[in-house]
Amino acid sequence: MTRVVVSEFMDLPAVESLRDVFDVDYTPDLVDDRAGLLARVAGADALIVRNRSRVDRELLAAAPRLRAVGRLGVGLDNIDTAACEAAGIAVFPATGANSLAVAEYVVATAMVLLRGAYLSGNEVAAGQWPRARMSQGRETAGKTIGLVGFGGIGRMTAKLAQCLGMRVLAHDPALAPDARAWSDSGVGRRELDALLAEADVVSLHVPLVDSTRGLIDAARLARMKPEAVLINTARGGVVDEAALAAALQAGRLGGAALDVFESEPLRADSPLAGAPNLILTPHIGGVTRESNERVSSLIAERIRGFFRNP
Ligand code: NAD
User: Which residue ranges form the domains of the chain, and what is each CATH number?
Assistant: First the structure.
């Protein structure tokens, strides 16, 4: 029987739908036991992962029967796609299935950071009344959001931001100036440095590849408006974390929200610890109940379809 190993959490009804046709080994914390993962994939025909299981040459060497990898998400930086292709292994990302979750995270954190007034719970509960300090919050409507990367998530974010009355700019070198994505969306095309200088909110939506590693470094952060906010839901390696922490500490940036980090979990001695106006979340931008259902059922369907018509 075809054997499917699932090494990270997946929506249970989707796991059950796989069990109807396959021999399924669903061990959501297998990702934290590398030796166990390498042992279990030895007999696997398919492997389903999120972003933490490294599907690299070592794992492929341990999985001689492997023919398909399902990715419960979209970034493929944890999967050696070239090695998979060379070995004839199909890779299925859940393209589009978590875009709305990320886009909502972006507009929500943009509003929180611009307004600057929602993180006062402890002070208010303690009887303090920081009203004067918190009365300088900014409205979102009329502000400019700059999207670095204008693919699936960038475009979804643009739509939500436009609904809020924001002006939207984007930078994406892969999209020609006359591409319909620009004219259909009403989004302004900019070079990266121009976007950084114009935007009140900068949101990153690029894959982590050689050309985007360290893209937002100290020099690029310095190009942003001093009160602008930065949101990173893409991948940690895209932002220089030490440079961002220094900019926040020095008051050279209005705030930031980071969902992804160079090293996950974030190390306790990270320079980001204690930086002001900083929202940190544990890589959940794309994960909601609804998106987990969509992502999981999409990947279950892809794996079923692959073994029906390989
Ligand atoms: P996508 O492939 O649809 O879009 C990525 C876009 O980035 C493409 O249009 C590409 O041309 C563009 N791009 C590539 N290099 C660039 C560069 N140097 N400058 C500007 N643009 C560049 O991908 P997507 O679905 O929009 O997802 C974007 C990224 O978001 C993923 O690769 C993933 O890393 C991340 N992501 C994170 C979460 C989360 O939970 N935080 C969830 C989903 C996706």
Answer: 3-95+289-308 (3.40.50.720), 99-280 (3.40.50.720)
pLDDT tens-digit profile of 218-251? 999 999 999 999 999 999 999 999 999 999 999 9
C-alpha 70 – ligand 1 centre gap (Å): 18
Residue 171 designated active-site = no
Which residues, other chains included, contact 149 with Cβ-Cβ below 8 Å and sequence gap of 6+? Answer: 170, 171, 172, 204, 205, 206, 207, 234
In whole angstroms, give the CA distance from residue 12 to residue 297.
10
* 137-180 tens-digit pLDDT: 999 999 999 999 999 999 999 999 999 999 999 999 999 999 99
- Which residues, in sequence order, are CB contacts of 293 under 8 Å at separation 6+? 11, 13, 14
Considering the entire predicted model, what is its pTM? 0.94
Residues near ligand 1 with C-beta < 6 Å? Answer: 73-75, 98-99, 102, 148-154, 171-174, 205-208, 211-212, 233-235, 259-260, 283, 285-287
The yes-or-no answer on residue 264 being catalytic is yes
235 is catalytic: yes
